[in-house]
Amino acid sequence: MKRKEVPIWEKSNLTVEEAAAYSGIGINKLKEITSSEKCEFVLWIGTKRLIKRRLFDKYIERCYSL
Asked: Right CATH number for 10-62 from 3.10.290.10, 3.20.14.10, 3.40.30.10, 3.90.105.50?
């Protein structure tokens, strides 16, 4: 059975690579930001790091610079 690919803007959680493509922010910078325990938009599943897209959008809107 063939899996249907879900567009990035419809996903609730993104991989770091998808979040980089979605936002234009580099992978290394995203990893640096999401390594903080205070980061509200990261979801850890074991060692896998996912970005909560809606909270990430709000974070970007509040930022002046990264």
From this structure: 3.90.105.50
